[in-house]
Structure formats: C-alpha cells, structure tokens
Specification:
- This protein is α/β, with parallel strands linked by helices.
- It has helices at 15-23, 46-55, 65-71, 97-100, 111-121, 147-158, 192-199, 203-210, 212-216, 235-241, 279-282, 301-308, 371-377, 390-399, 403-416, and strands spanning 3-9, 29-36, 60-61, 81-84, 128-134, 161-169, 180-188, 219-220, 227-230, 255-259, 262-266, 269-270, 311-316, 322-327, 358-360, 366-368.
- It has a 10-stranded mixed beta sheet with strand order 3-2-1-4-5-7-6-10-11-9, with helices on both faces. The chain has a two-stranded antiparallel sheet with strand order 8-12.
Length: 417
C-alpha cells in the first residue's frame, strides 16, 4: 500500500500519529485523515488544543465520540487503519448488544464506539486495527477474570476480524520508560494478513515469530504452554458466561492471537540485546535551566521520605473500621541508571507524593521532573505539550504512550500491508 489512511480515536496529543508518521517510508506513508479527542467533563480541552496546534484542525473533532458516531457518522471518512488508546475500565455488558450499544460505565462504553464504527462502515470497514490499553484488561473484572477482553475478542470475531495481542513493557526493548501496556492489532476478513492467520497451523510460531507484533518485538515462549480459549462471536453470551467456572484466574496470557472466535495464548518473555535509554539520558543536565519550583524545599524532604518509604501502620476508614496498612519502600531519589518508572497522571504539582519522580542533581539538590523531561520519557518532541499549564502537561504525559513502541509496530504493519 502506498498510503495507509488512518483514523485516530482518543488521540490525546497525537502519540499514535507521531509514531505512525515516523514509521512511514518512501514506499508507504501513514496519513491521518480524521482524529478525535474529547475529555469528558473538562471545561478546557487542553489535549485537543495541543493536537490542533501541532497538526492543524483539518479533520479533527473535539466532540463526544459517541455523539459523533450516533449523529454525525458521515463525518468519519473511510480509512484503512483505526487506532486508539481507548479508556480502560467498566467493560460489562448488562443488556443485549442492540440495547446497550456497549459496555457499561462512562469510559468502558467507549469500546462500543470503536465497534460501531467498524460495524457501520460495513464493507468499507478498515483493514487494520491498532489499539492500546492497560495490561489489566486481560484480567478484568475481579469477579469474572478475563471477561472484558473476551468480550472484545468476541465482538471483533463477530465482525470478521482476526486479532493478535502482546503486553509490552517499553523499557524491555530499550525505551526510556517502564510502561507496560497491551497492544491489540486486528485484521479484517479477506485481507492478506487475515488470510495468513486463518490458514496458519502453527499458532505458537505465529505468536512468537511470524506475527506483526512478533516481527517488531522479539520474544521467547518456546517452553510455555499454549492454551485454546473459545470466545465465540456473541459478546452477550461471553458477558454472561465467560470464566464462570474459574472466575479467579484469567485464561489469557500476555501474548496471543484469535481467529474465528477461538483464541490461542501463551506467556512470552522479551528478547532484546540492543541499546537502552535510561532516565539519566533524558534529563536536563544544566540546573540553571530548571525553574526553581521544581526543586524540593529542604523542609519538605521528610514528608517525601515518609511517602516514599516502606510502612506498616494501623489506619481507620471513614466508617470507623480499623485495619493494618502496609506498603514497601520506593527508590528515593529515582535512579538515573535505569529506565524511569511509569509516568502517572498525578505527576505534576509541588505537593509531596509517593509516585512522583524525584531525582538528585549534581549539586546534591532534589527536584521533580519538568514537562520536557516527561515528554522525553514518552518520546515526544521537546515542548510538544507546551501551551498547557505544567500540571496539565504532566497529566497528559501520564495518559500518553511511548511513541517508539508505536513506531516499531507501525513499521511491522507497514511492511506486511
């Protein structure tokens, strides 16, 4: 394919777009033809504003995607690849698919926005899907382990897609952040990749060696047991019955594929011997370039040490229930000789926190990470999120993905498309 037309949902500030555009070459170009970013309940749409500032407003929507799918569907152009890091909770199907049009919950229901686009496009549905989510998707919900992911696989099988997935920790492949996410790639019935998956007899070899994800990120699973999981093509049945006999353990491992409503899954381990980027490689070395508000006041150090430290203590809940609380220690300050911990949305602000990154400078002072450094850990260009307040820039970084992972997977898909 000379051009792969892309629709980017839940676009944030364009992490998928940056990765895919970086994966383009002289023979095949990824071109975003439509994008959507809308933060429910937010008065100021910072991420959408940044997206428009970087990429322009042509083909960009800052509206509730469910409203767009229901009432303005014709504004979504035909495309070859649908991508998105869709929100990651509340996935139960309580009613029939026709009634509910989706999974319950303000965020989980957005899965069906993806489904409805594929369904309503019909014969013009995209050949490829490329989705990202948190890895706990494979195990949720707690009372019916694996059901949510099984619903998604069943939904895609119903529409004729074959699927492969892998949980990837970006740092395992040399990237600067320990960010573990599940990546899901789908291939429409009749496409070349779908045909290869459909006739593939050695499912283990596809998962480990021959698949689109496998060619981008080498792994080893030769000794792992592969399981077959029947998900079928009816998500309502899956919602009601999946994992009922063994609700405490999900049948899905960190790698797998699904064809025709049957999934094959096994545990793989990453294999990588290349260059690694560490936290110390991305920080701004010149302390004079760091605004003073990012340095920790000596009077606050004890509070930081307490929050970062291990503890075991009695606590009382709001209803008066007493319980023992314990947690292990965290590195304080963070090591510059390792990839960073996962950036979270609460990274910004001056208040002490267990989860915010803190580093020690050459002069011995302690400081938090700046927005530019957080961008670098996500592999965004410097000042990509400029224009929003620092605390929002940190929030955006915590919501984003590692662009280098998208680029590698985009290259693999490009070569197979």
């Amino acid at each position: 394919m000379k051009e792969i037309r892309v629709v980017e949902l839940f676009a944030g500030v364009g992490g998928f777009r940056l990765g895919l555009e970086g994966a383009s070459n002289s023979k095949t170009k990824y071109k975003v033809v439509w994008s959507s970013q809308w933060e429910p309940g937010a008065k100021k749409q910072h991420a959408s504003d940044i997206y428009v500032a970087r990429f322009g407003d042509k083909g960009h929507s800052c509206e509730d995607i469910q409203e767009v799918v229901d009432k303005k569907f014709d504004t979504i152009p035909n495309h070859d690849l649908l991508v998105g890091g869709f929100p990651c909770q509340d996935y139960s199907v309580a009613r029939t698919l026709k009634q509910a049009q989706g999974l319950e919950g303000k965020k989980g229901v957005l899965w069906w926005s993806i489904y409805n686009i594929l369904d309503k496009k019909g014969k013009n549905a995209p050949k490829f899907l490329f989705l990202e989510n948190v890895d706990r998707l494979l195990k949720s919900p707690a009372k019916q382990r694996g059901r949510d992911f099984a619903i998604m696989l069943s939904s895609l099988a119903k529409l004729g897609y074959a699927v492969e997935w892998r949980v990837i920790n970006a740092a395992d492949y040399g990237f600067p952040q320990r960010r573990r996410r599940i990546f899901i790639m789908g291939f429409k019935g009749g496409s070349q990749i779908w045909k290869k998956m459909s006739v593939c007899k050695d499912k283990r070899k596809w998962i480990i060696d021959d698949g689109i994800i496998a060619k981008a990120f080498k792994s080893n699973g030769a000794g792992a047991k592969m399981s077959e999981v029947e998900v079928g093509i009816d998500p309502v049945i899956v919602s009601q019955k999946f994992s009922k006999d063994a609700p405490s353990k999900s049948p899905f491992e960190n790698s797998g594929m699904m064809v025709g409503g049957k999934a094959y899954t096994l545990k793989t381990e990453p294999e990588y011997k290349g260059k690694r980027t560490l936290l110390g490689d991305v920080i701004i070395k010149d302390e004079n370039k760091i605004p003073e508000e990012f340095f920790i006041s000596p009077k606050d150090v004890k509070r930081w040490e307490y929050l970062k430290g291990g503890k075991k203590e009695s606590r009382k809940s709001s209803d008066g229930h007493e319980y023992d609380y314990s947690e292990g220690p965290m590195a304080f300050p963070d090591s510059l000789d390792k990839p960073s911990r996962t950036i979270i949305t609460g990274e910004g602000g001056t208040s002490p926190s267990r989860f915010k990154h803190v580093i020690r400078t050459k002069s011995g002072r302690l400081r938090r990470l700046t927005p530019i450094e957080l961008e670098r850990l996500d592999m965004f260009p410097d000042n990509h999120t400029a224009g929003a307040p620092d605390i929002k820039r940190a929030f955006i970084a915590g919501n984003a993905l590692v662009v280098g992972v998208i680029k590698k997977l985009g290259e693999s898909l490009r070569d197979a498309a």
